[in-house]
Structure formats: C-alpha cells, structure tokens
Amino acid sequence: KEKKPAEGRKHQNMQNDTKASQGQWGRAWEVDWFSLASILFLLMFAPLIVYYFIMSCAQYQCSLTDPLLDLLTGNKHLSDIWNSTPTLTYRAAVIYSLWVTFQVVLYLFIPDFCHKFLPGYVGGVQEGAVTPAGVVNKYEINGLQAWIITHVLWFANASCFHFFSPTIIFDNWIPLLWCANILGYAVSTFAMIKGYFFPTNAKDCKFTGNFFYDYMMGIEFNPRIGKWFDFKLFFNGRPGIVAWTLINLSFAAKQQELYGQVTNSMILVNVLQGIYVLDFFWNEAWYLKTIDICHDHFGWYLGWGDCVWLPYLYTLQGLYLVYHPVQLSTAHAIGVLILGLLGYYIFRMTNHQKDLFRRTSGNCRIWGKKPQYIECSYTSVDGTKFYSKLMTSGFWGWARHFNYTGDLMGSLAYCLACGFEHLLPYFYIVYMTILLTHRCLRDEHRCSSKYGKDWKRYTAAVPYRLLPGIF
Ligand code: NDP
Q: Where is this region: Disordered (predicted)?
C-alpha cells in the first residue's frame, strides 16, 4: 500500500528526530579529541593517583608533597618506594574473595524482607527507568538488607566471636588494594568482551569504534548475567558502598588500638559518612532513576571506579585520622556536624522533591504548594514519543542541581573534620567539585539533546546550576 506523500514525510521526520535524540541519550556515539585525551589520562593515571595517596599515608604520614620532594632531590628512587610497598598476599586474596562472594550471595539469593517491616522503605522487585531501546528492567532491591546483615555480623564478631580483628581492613589495606584492582580490571574487561559477543540487550549497546573510549565508558547499558545479576546495581552499591562504613569502622578500631581512644573527628567522619551510606541504601529504589543507572553504560569508569576508586579514595579521611588522630575543639566539631547535617538535608530533600514529583507525575505538594513545571517530550530508539516534566518548584526552582550543592556541603564537612594540617583529606572535596561540576555539564548536554527546545525553556526558568546568582 502506497503512503501518501505527507505521511511519508512525517515518517521520515520522525526517523530523523529519533536518530537525533537517540544520538545523545546516554553516553556519546562519537568521540571528540578532548574526551579521548581525558580518557587516556584517566586510564593511565587514576590507578597511580590511588596508589600515590595510599602509599603517602603508609610511608609518609599522609604528606602528599614529601614523596615528590624525596624523588626530586634524589633522596629516594621510585624503586625504593615501590620496594617498601606491601605486595599482594594470600591472606588478602582470601579476605577479598570471601567478601565479594558474600556480597554476591546477599545480593542474589536473599530476597528483600526489609520492606515487609520497615514503614516507608521501598525494597523488593522494582522497575528501572526506560532505556533508549525502550526496555524497562526489573531489579531486586535488597541493598539495605545486605548492609544490615553485613554490619550485624561485623559487630557480632567484634563484640562476641572474635574470629578476626576489627582492624583487619586497615592491617591489609595495601594488599587488598591489589585485589580490588584485579577485580576492577577483570570486570571491566569482561564487560567489554560481553558487549561485543553476548550482550544482554544488543539494542542498548553503543560502539564508537574507539577501543579506549568503549573500554572506559562501556558498551553495554545494562549488562546482566541471568535474570537478576545486574552489573551496574551490584558494583555501584556492593561491594564498594557496603564496605565504606566497614572500612571507616576498621580505621576507628585502629585508632583505638594505637592510641587507646577514638577521636571526635573519627566519630564525626564515621557518623556523617554512615548517614550518607545508609541514605544510599534506604533510597536504593530511587537510585535506579539516577544518572549512574539510567544513563551511564557499564565500563571501566563504573567497574574499576566502584571497586577501587570509591572504597580507597572516599575513605581517605578515616585513613588520615589513623595517622593523625585529630581531637577537635567542641566549637569546631559542632560546626562540622552542622555543616554535614545541613548539606545532607539539602541533598536528601532536593532528591526527594524530584522523586516525589516524578512518581506522582506532578500531583503532589512541594513546600505546601502544587509544583510548577515545564512539559517536555523526547523520542526513543523505536520512534515512540514519550512525555515528561521538569519541575521548577522547591529546591529545583533555586538551581538546576541543588542536590549536588548539598552533596558538596556534606563532602566539605568530612574534610574539615580532619583539621588543617595536611592537604590529603581535602582531596575529597576537590574531587567531588570536579565530578559534580562535570556531571552538571554532562547531564545538561544530554538533557538538552534529549528535550531540545523544552530544555531551553527550562534553563530560562531556572538559570543557575549550583549556586543561585553565581553559577
Ligand atoms: P539527578 O538526580 O539530579 O538526576 C538528573 C536527572 O534528573 C536529569 O538527567 C533529568 O533526567 C532529571 N531532571 C533534571 N532536572 C529535573 C527537574 N527539574 N525536574 C525533574 N527531573 C529533572 O542527578 P544524579 O543522578 O547525578 O545524582 C543523584 C544524586 O546522587 C545527587 O544528589 C548527587 O549529589 C549524588 N551523587 C553522588 C556521587 C558520589 O560519588 N558521592 C556521584 C554521583 C551522584 P530525565 O532524563 O529523567 O529528565
């Protein structure tokens, strides 16, 4: 049957439209030289950065400049530093293998029971966001349960069973770093091969043709093994984030062992980061709708990053405090606590407002009023048109990423808890500022391609990104 000319044109327009929006939905299809240079830089230097930080604590009391000075003045050679670094040990390999296996078991084989008795908690089988190919994945949300079981066992061991010392993580910190790297590289390489040869959903794969870019940013969108083992959900949350609080507890235990007390700064870091981690697991279902899960592909950036970068660099404050047991004045400690809690409040409320708004499709109240929003539309890979809304009320009317602002305030609080003697604990705020500013730009580039002129209307209504009136 012949199509009428007008119909044909409409069809063609729709295809062009589809191509355009699909092109920028998720990570890029084409690699510009700047992205490639950044990726090569990160692939080469990110593992060295992690090593440098951890080594400078172990060998230079957390001074970032002393190792460089030693090398520049010829006082030491690279080989001296390397030869003083603990190697991979059998003990660390066993600890790490047991740890990862235990987290796989908790993730795969124990369906969530927390949602059955915790009011307000969303767990069990939940749906993720629609992918560019129009797929809606199901996830078993049981991270809170995994976190609780792991920590109950940790405390049971520390107080009753004494199978191992609570300082076990600190005591094996560098050998465990090698294990984390092995897993990080193995999983990223496996994800790349899987993307080529047996992808979970071929329509959601992206190939740029550039090996390094594909390795780093991932090919598959949601690689899975079987029905339920989702790489992104597992590696993003566990083993790294469940470990975060255990690592901090191990550092606190080390302080107790070395100095006979745990300082108020270490307690602050444990409490503030503990709130952040618990918040992550309490809101794991919401997390399915964040950029990591609904836009990023799974490659080295997430695979290695979750195994190595996150557990080693997000815990630098606790590690620093083992070497420098800072006892803060009451005023300083209260200031840090207030900043940390205020940052957390802004972070959580902003995320909550968007979540509520999206879940109810705008039929809710934000700060006691019906929310205002901008209607927008986008097209998926098969040409289906979807409608969405961008809220301009509440914190989302103050700035386009006020959740990041809250996150940055909390991050600064962790650093300030460590006093002002060294640079190393401040790495986190520097890194988070770069990460979240880059994320703002990345997300806005994507949203702009996804929503087109509707995005322009939104940025006109909410002109600032992080700080109203400034940026
Ligand atoms: P957001 O939760 O801000 O999600 C951005 C997405 O939300 C956009 O792509 C768009 O998606 C949608 N959106 C944007 N503006 C609006 C609006 N006005 N109304 C409704 N929807 C909107 O970003 P992230 O996923 O990056 O971050 C989630 C949280 O995780 C943040 O609080 C961040 O601070 C934290 N985080 C922490 C990290 C860490 O390492 N500690 C790393 C990364 C994030 P759509 O296409 O659906 O419209």
A: 1-21
Is any atom of ligand 1 closer than 6 Å to the C-beta of 403? yes
The per-residue pLDDT for 83 is 96
Average pLDDT over residues 24-45: 76
Distance, CA of 156 to CA of 150 (rounded, Å): 10
Residue 229, SS3 per DSSP: strand
Provide the H-helix boundaries in 118-239: 143-156, 168-171, 173-197, 211-217, 231-237
Burial 283-298 (b: 16+ CB within 10 A, else e): bbbbbbbbebbbbbbb
Helix (H) or strand (E) holding 271: helix 264-282
pLDDT at 405 over 70: yes
219 lines ligand 1 (CB under 6 A): no
Gap from CA of 354 to ligand 1 centroid (Å): 9
User: pLDDT digit string (tens) for 204-232?
Assistant: 888 888 899 999 999 999 999 998 999 99
Q: Which amino acid is at 12?
A: Q
Most confident of 39-43, 261-265, 376-380: 261-265
- Of all atoms in ligand 1, which is nearest to the CA of residue 446? 9
Q: What is the pLDDT of residues 337-378, one digit of tens each?
A: 999 999 999 999 999 999 899 989 889 999 999 999 999 988
For residue 273 and ligand 1, the question of a CB distance below 6 A is answered with: no
The CA-atom distances, in angstroms, between 99 and each of 103, 148, 157, 240 are 6, 15, 15, 11
Q: Both tokens of residue 243?
A: 């470990």
Whether 224 lines ligand 1, by a CB cut-off of 6 Å, is no
Which numbered atom of ligand 1 lies nearest the CA of 411?
Answer: 41
CA distance 50 to 54: 6
Note the pLDDT tens digit of each residue in 118-177: 999 999 999 988 887 888 899 999 999 999 999 999 999 999 999 999 999 999 999 999
352 lines ligand 1 (CB under 6 A): no
Distance 350 CA to ligand 1 centre (A): 10
Summarised one tens digit per residue, pLDDT across range 446-460 is: 899 888 899 999 999
Residue ranges of alpha helices (H) inside 25-142 are 33-60, 66-72, 78-83, 90-109, 114-117
Is 443 a pocket residue for ligand 1 (Cβ < 6 Å)? Answer: yes
Whether 390 is in the pocket of ligand 1, judged by its Cβ within 6 Å, is: yes
Ligand 1 in contact with 288 (CB < 6 A)? no
> d(Cα 181, Cα 201) in Å, to the nearest integer?
27
Query: Could you tell me what percentage of the chain is helix, strand and coil, using 3-state DSSP and rounding each to the nearest 5?
Result: 65, 5, 30
- Mutate which of 357, 443, 451 for ligand 1? The one with the most ligand atoms within 8 Å of its CB, which is 443
Task: Report the alpha-carbon distance of residue 251 to residue 312 in Å, rounded.
Answer: 12
